[in-house]
Structures are given as structure tokens and as C-alpha cells.
């Protein structure tokens, strides 16, 4: 998968630019930064966005890199994501299929960002990606095996998540935080760049269906004194995603805007 990614970004600029678009609604596009139309500071990243499910619908849209590698990768990631969703449900004391049922059986929003971070002459002036949490349910990240760049916020300090042979990084996203009523927290993370070497990563985003109704699981909203405390109000994923893309990446946690108001 990383080799396919590298080959794509090595194509001549004219070839790649045929795929360029800054329209977030497009299911296949090459873009840059995060949300070029909204943001004031751009990020030092290019990315190829590919939707992954159902594969027969989307794979024909992809650039003509060997698609089997990418299709297989998407399929395997999907299976892994489902296993993780089941395990997270069980870890919360919920029925195994709870999260999958809430997110929807088809999870058609599954997509990936193939990220390319070119060497940056002045890395102190910007990021590859600034501090953010992912708006979806779970993100499975395949990192460049040679070049580090991912950092996560832990107890107020940025910690490097260096590549580890054969390892994937799993980020909890905002939807699992909402569903679990804050038992799982979506992780603040960012990507830094360096002056000498380009870096690649492949982010796979497992997403609820657009009409999935996300709200804290009722079993997880009982306070110690027996009172019912749902931190977040119910919302559809479509509503959340629209809000997320209407903002800059570098802002307060999008979930803050979906908190229940305490009377
Ligand atoms: C992302 C992301 C980190 C990385 O795509 O949302 O956080 O290391 N990527 O590329
Ligand atoms: Ni992210």
C-alpha cells in the first residue's frame, strides 16, 4: 500500500493535477492542506482521497495504480475496523454488535486519505496537519516505515508515535467519544514535517452512515448517584460532518458544539 502511495505521488505534476479538486463532496480527488477554501494557514500536505465502499462502485474512479493492492487493503482494514468496533463495545459492557448497529451495517462512508508530506523548508511555520481530532468513528493509520511525523497529545504533552515495523496506529474518533459518553476520548494528534525528507501515510476512516443517529449509549449515562447524564445530545452523522467541514481544522473540539446544555 505504501509503495502504491509513493508511486502515485511520484507521477508528474501535470498527471496528478488532472485529479485536483478543493470540493470536499468529491469521492475521488487530489487536494492539498485540509480545507483550502476555509482555512487561513495552509498545511504542508497533499492528499489523495479515495472512497472505499462498496468497492465495485468506487474502485473504477481511482487512478490506475494497481487497484488490487488498494482494494485488498480497504477490505482488510474494514474487517479490522469491525473487529475493533466489536471489541470496544464489549469493553464498555455493551452488546458486542452495539457500535456496529449504531454506525450502520454498511458504513458506506469508509474512505481513505493517502497523505504526502513534502520536505518543508520552514517546518516551524506550519504543520503537515495541525492538532485535531478525527470526526469519524475510528481511524486506522499506516505510517511511513522510515520517516516519523505523527504526534499525539498525552497529559498536555506532545508525544511522537514513531513508525514500528508492521504496526498500524488506531485513533479513536469523535463518534466513539460521543457513543461512549466520553469513556473513550478521541485523540488530539498532529503531523509535523521536516526539512529533508518527504513522508507518506495512509489514513483509513471508518465512518457511520450519514443517517446514523449518534448519542451516548443509555447504559453509559448513569451517574454515580443514579442520575442520568448524557454529555452529548443526539445528532446524525450527516449533521456532525457538515459542521466539521464548515470549520478550520485548528479549532476547539467539534464535539463541544454538540454538548447537552445543563439546565
Ligand atoms: C489524518 C491524520 C496523520 C498522519 O489523516 O487525519 O491525522 O500521520 N494523519 O498522516
Ligand atoms: Ni487525523
TrEMBL record:
Residues 108-208 form the Fe2OG dioxygenase domain. The keyword Amino-acid biosynthesis does not apply. It comes from the Eukaryota. Keywords: Iron, Metal-binding, Oxidoreductase, Vitamin C. InterPro entries: DIOX_N, IPNS-like_FE2OG_OXY, IPNS-like_sf, Oxoglu/Fe-dep_dioxygenase_dom, Plant_2OG-oxidoreductases. The keyword Transmembrane does not apply. GO terms for molecular function: L-ascorbic acid binding; metal ion binding; oxidoreductase activity. Belongs to the iron/ascorbate-dependent oxidoreductase family. This is Fe2OG dioxygenase domain-containing protein. It comes from Linum tenue.
